[in-house]
Amino acid sequence: MVKQKAWKKNKKIHLHKGQEVELSIRRLGINGEGVGYYQKQVVFVDGAIPGEIVVARITDIEKNFAKAKLIRIKKKSAYRTDPQCPVYDTCGGCQLQHMDYRFQRRLKRELVQEAFRKYTHLDEIPIEPMISMSEPWTYRNKAQLPLQQIGNRVAMGMFSAKSHRLVQVDDCLVQHPLVNQVLSVTREIIEQLKISVYEERKHQGVIRHLVARIAFATEEVQLVLVTRTSSFPEEKTLISMVTEQLPQVKSIVLNHNPHKTSLIFGDRNRLLWGKEKITEKLGELTFLLSPRAFFQLNPVQTAKLYEEVRKLAKLTGSETIIDAYCGVGTIGLWLAKDAKKVLGMDTIPEAIEDARENAKINGIEHAEYFAGEAESLLPDWIQNGLQPDLVVVDPPRTGLGQPLIDTLLKVKIPRLIYVSCNPSTLAKDCHQLLQGGYELKRIVPLDMFPQTAHVESVTLLEAI
Fold first, then answer.
1. 394 in a known ligand binding site
2. 291-314: pLDDT as tens digits
3. What pairing do the DSSP bridges indicate for beta strands 166-168 and 153-159?
4. Are 444 and 333 part of one and the same domain?
5. Are residues 73 and 114 both part of a single domain?
6. Which is it for the CA torsion 302, 306, 311, 313, positive or negative?
7. Confidence at residue 12, expressed as pLDDT on a 0 to 100 scale
8. Do 159 and 124 share a structural domain?
9. Are 282 and 304 in contact (CB under 8 A)?
10. Count of domains in the chain?
11. Is residue 141 a contact partner of residue 179, using CB atoms and an 8 Å limit?
12. Where does the chain bind S-adenosyl-L-methionine (predicted)?
């Protein structure tokens, strides 16, 4: 009898594809999925909400988890809502439109909190309330959409998740309305002029992507045509029609990407018409933006984000600041008036040119910018005697490179502010820093992208 109980207790449960299981959804996954457990096996269910009981069909089985498709809801969450977007289920751009926005904010804060619990093993996480949006729609300032020829029509939209199946998107609810308008009208012009559209399989055709970015403060729009060829015969006609129908467009650029690649942008830009850069304002600062330069996609929340960075920095005017992954210089220039010196670096040369020009037009003479990787430049600078008082890092989703972490551990920067868009890599990097002599002081989560699973945060660490 005892042996039988022990065998049952230790028996391993095996899931199989196609199996239907009933799950209690416990929490939100990093990509917006509902997370449940079947006999202690983690199961991710797209479209399920924490607090619900669902029936789901197993679709994929990995070593440490399984994925499942939502079949039906047995107990519905009080926070479930009807998505406003007609292609929400197929587009893949948003993941949380089926949840009340107040609940989205709560769950995203918990994502950050749980990541730190998992990777740092701290008993207490010094996390602040979520900084959210009063209007969680029409906040994005940039869209880059692929084109596809379907019969006589030119289709435009987004690729469905993990596929190259185009979902047509005519009026995205999280994009600024003028961005939608510029892209839609340009698509119609391309169709009318019968300009060939890129076909990935054959590596033929001209127009690959349309990219539009609006400056919220000035309402200037930059239109970028990403093309396989370096030119096309209908250029002048297209420019004439775009500028006549879309007076808000102040810059039209051709970006040449001749390669068979999933990367959107190529290395070379050619100005077709108007200004090379559009002008954006953020707080008291003015920024010039070139096509490939990084600039935060939600200007309203960006100003709040940078204010949190400024508060945590507690500058006195005597500090030397390193602005790693600086983009067009936004964070460093936001802090510059209260600092002695700002040094920034980025891997995109155009971004560094923009950062230098942005410092100049804002009258900031004590900020310098360099092209290169933070993982290489910062260790070199410190080895040559630089002693920064504050380092601000705003890395891509992959987090900090190990050489940069090693330098931060070796030198012990008095104050380190880590701006992150990925709670997992943030917490993993912080774990190394905490093990190596830093103390976690504050985490401020911020909802930069409502309706999606993405969450931004600002974290302060201090050398012990």
1. yes
2. 988 889 999 999 999 999 999 999
3. antiparallel
4. yes
5. no
6. positive
7. 53
8. no
9. no
10. 3
11. yes
12. 296, 325, 346, 394
